[in-house]
Amino acid sequence: MKKLHLLRQRLIGAVPSLARDPDRLLTFVEEGSIEFRRGRNLSHEYQYAAQLVLTDFGDDLDTVMVPLLQWLAEYQPDAEPGEAVSFEAEILSNRSVDLALRVRLTERVIAKVDCEAGTIRVDRALPRFELDACPVTQHWQLLIRDTNTDDDYTLASEWGEVDSDGG
């Protein structure tokens, strides 16, 4: 479940309230299964629903959704758009919710059997797909504005690496 760890790291790095208190992000695996073929080949694929629960969440919902969708575009680009992410929320107050996200993930494992040597070599295939729109950008700022106002955009969060030139 390497992808779930990567997704968790992305959200902690991108969502300001999670960066301050990462223990407010709980992660679980539900409905896990393994797809494989019979025979000598032991390659297989993990398929599971990752559940991410953000407790006492008071930020704008897009501070979570935008980095999550960006991560899916990089690590799970074959996800069905209508089924890739679902969510539920429990309203705690006028300012906070408990937010539960469910994300469908797959991970391929290539297991090569060498009968003569008596070995099985396992490679975990976690391909990362470059974002076509901005392949060189490594640092992101999320700017949010209410379309019903003439207010300027507000910086909601930042994530990613800053290059050596400080940009």
TrEMBL record:
Organism, scientific name: Halomonas salifodinae
Superkingdom of the source species: Bacteria
Descriptive protein name: Phage tail protein
